[in-house]
Specification:
With about 140 residues, the chain is an alpha/beta fold. A 6-stranded mixed sheet has the order 3-2-1-4-5-6, sandwiched between helices. It has a single domain, classed as 3-Layer(aba) Sandwich (Rossmann fold). The model has no long low-confidence stretch (mean pLDDT about 90). β5 and β6 form a beta hairpin.
């Protein structure tokens, strides 16, 4: 790598972040790029994709419609196939993969954010309904 060349960083995106553009009219990809000031590759875990697909089938008509739109936004991500044990929740899969890859995570889930912070993993989240914010160093 040449001096001054920026590395592309992988960011794991949680399902709830895909609802941000729909609810708050924020371009999450542009916002993350500005926040990091470097190239990044959005990563969608296969377990998160499955969770979002289930949301299109179950829940209120409004939630189903939002989930369908969120899936369209999620197409900009590279999907990474991961395995999930019977005992694991989707959040635990994100926590495990983020720890293994040492990748920041974009999520609005308060409990998951705390667990990620406890492990020293940077977190991107929605602050004040108008911008994404980075917690921790990338």
């Amino acid at each position: 790598m040449q001096t001054g060349e920026k590395v592309t960083i992988e960011i794991i995106i949680d399902a709830n972040i895909f609802l941000v553009p729909l609810q708050f009219k924020i371009d999450i990809f542009e916002n993350i790029a500005n926040l990091l000031n470097q190239k990044f590759e959005p990563i969608l875990l296969s377990t998160t994709l499955q969770e979002m697909q289930k949301m299109t089938e179950k829940g209120s008509p409004k939630l189903r419609k939002q989930a369908e739109m969120a899936l369209k936004i999620a197409q900009k991500c590279r999907t990474v196939d991961v395995k999930k044990s019977q005992e694991e929740t989707n959040d635990e899969v994100i926590l495990r993969v983020a720890t293994q890859l040492k990748s920041p995570v974009a999520t609005n889930d308060r409990e998951l954010r705390k667990r990620l912070r406890d492990r020293g993993i940077p977190v991107i989240f929605l602050r004040g309904k108008h911008q994404l914010e980075l917690e921790g160093a990338v």
